[in-house]
């Protein structure tokens, strides 16, 4: 009798062990994929290696979204407020596009251009007339701070016709932008300057993701941010050509990737930001990264993610 009980217990134990092994065999490949259980893996590594182990991603905050269905595959401190730097221009362009027509003819006033801070990125905007879409391209492709002041000056004049100076018109624009940010739900974003050259500005990858998604609804935006070299035709028929700051678009760069179709870079002080739109597996993926410690580290982070997407059978499905 005791022998039969022991035999039954042994059989149950073996069945249970087999079930655990089968479950583990099916679960382990999924768990090993870089995009899965990222937080749990980071916690285990930090516990094992203490201060000698560094986070997998150099960026302070990062998010990866599958735009086909809104799935989030990587999310690191997505609610942490950080410097937007030139990514602030995404909010400015979105707001300005709702104020004026793309074909509006905009005067580039010397007063507005003079507000460009020394050492900031410029598009070499001249004192002449531009189409509004010319200036959007100048903000998005070479990240021209001078173009941002001209846009804010013009749109601020539409919002506040009584304003007599560029400073007053830009102040009116920023006041309107503040209201717009709240109305659109960008509750973690604070902007004080249309160019993003502002150490007191704040945003999150969630807000950057949201504004980029809205801008991607515009065909003109997609066309602009996908080009490494962009030639703008101005109202007088003259042209200006700009080079993108997005190294993923540069065929001469080691980071060049033909499946990258945008979007924008930003850097200020010791923070390097990057937003990338990636096409793979018949889908679009959006990566928003804030606060990398160097230009190369932001590209290394995102490049690693792009390779992960390429190799992922799950994302391909």
TrEMBL record:
Residues 55-275 form the Peptidase S11 D-alanyl-D-alanine carboxypeptidase A N-terminal domain. InterPro entries: Beta-lactam/transpept-like (IPR012338), Peptidase_S11_N (IPR001967). GO terms for molecular function: serine-type D-Ala-D-Ala carboxypeptidase activity. It comes from the Bacteria. GO terms for biological process: proteolysis. This is Peptidase S11. It comes from Candidatus Gallacutalibacter pullicola. The lineage of its organism: Bacteria, Bacillati, Bacillota, Clostridia, Eubacteriales.
């Amino acid at each position: 009798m005791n022998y039969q009980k022991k035999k039954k217990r042994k059989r149950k134990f073996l069945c249970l062990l087999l079930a655990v092994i089968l479950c583990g065999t099916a679960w382990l490949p999924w768990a090993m994929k870089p995009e899965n259980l990222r937080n749990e893996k980071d916690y285990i590594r930090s516990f094992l290696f203490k201060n000698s182990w560094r986070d997998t991603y150099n960026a302070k905050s990062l998010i990866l979204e599958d735009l086909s269905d809104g799935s989030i595959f990587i999310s690191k401190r997505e609610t942490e407020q950080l410097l937007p730097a030139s990514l602030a221009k995404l909010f400015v362009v979105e707001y300005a596009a709702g104020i004026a027509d793309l074909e509006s003819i905009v005067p580039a006033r010397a007063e507005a251009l003079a507000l460009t801070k020394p050492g900031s990125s410029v598009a070499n905007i001249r004192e002449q007339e531009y189409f509004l879409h010319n200036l959007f391209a100048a903000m998005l492709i070479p990240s021209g701070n001078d173009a941002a002041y001209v846009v804010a000056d013009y749109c601020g004049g539409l919002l506040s016709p009584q304003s007599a100076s560029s400073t007053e018109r830009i102040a009116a624009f920023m006041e309107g932008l503040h209201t717009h940010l709240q109305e659109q739900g960008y509750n973690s974003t604070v902007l004080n300057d249309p160019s993003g050259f502002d150490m007191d500005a704040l945003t999150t990858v969630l807000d950057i993701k949201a504004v980029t998604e809205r801008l991607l609804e515009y065909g003109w935006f997609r066309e602009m941010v996908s080009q490494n070299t962009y030639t703008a035709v101005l109202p007088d028929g003259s042209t200006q050509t700009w080079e993108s700051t997005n190294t993923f678009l540069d065929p001469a760069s080691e980071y060049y990737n033909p499946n990258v179709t945008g979007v924008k870079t930003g850097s200020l002080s010791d923070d390097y930001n990057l937003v990338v739109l990636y096409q793979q597996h018949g889908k679009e993926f959006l990566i928003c990264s804030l606060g990398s410690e160097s230009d190369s580290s932001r590209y290394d982070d995102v490049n690693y993610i792009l390779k992960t997407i390429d190799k992922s059978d799950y994302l391909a499905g």
